[in-house]
Amino acid sequence: MRADSKEKTQGSAAKRRGPIFLVIALLAGVSVAAVATVILIGPGSGPEGSGETVYLNIPANASDRLDKGRDVPQIPDRISGTVGDTLVIRNRDRATQVVAGYPVSPGQTLKIPLNRAGSYETSCSAHPEDSIRMVISE
């Protein structure tokens, strides 16, 4: 086998490994979201609308304020609800935000049933500390 042929084969192998690493990273992200789901809403979800609706509205200027190191006044430090409530996240911002492991695209509304009581620290990219406390009572 010639040297240039051997280098070509090694280069091709490196190119094939790139997508594998991307898939592994993607699977790791999905796993984190799945764990957050089990922690926040439990293994099963109850009927939607069986409780109150708790809103988290991400305003249009959230990412601009965060980029400047400023708080977003509409984003609380804590969200409170009761088992059976539904958390409704509305993203009015121009950027995708991640809340409780779920990416919420611009203009998207996401509903999460709250089925497990507890106090949880979870991801919230619209918050200056990138996290938010969720307190779900029985």
TL;DR of this structure?
It is built from two helices and eight strands.
Describe it.
The chain is globular, with a radius of gyration of 20 Å. By secondary structure, the chain is an alpha/beta fold. It has a single domain, classed as Sandwich (Immunoglobulin-like), CATH 2.60.40.420. It is 33% helix and 30% strand.
Order of helices and strands: HEHEEEEEEE
Read across the widest sheet, the strand sequence of neighbours is 1-3-6
How many DSSP-defined strands? Answer: 8
Compute the average pLDDT. 79
- What is the number of helical segments per DSSP (H or I, 4+ residues)? 2
Query: What is the CATH topology classification name?
Result: Immunoglobulin-like
Give the overall shape.
globular
Major beta sheet summary: 3 strands, mixed
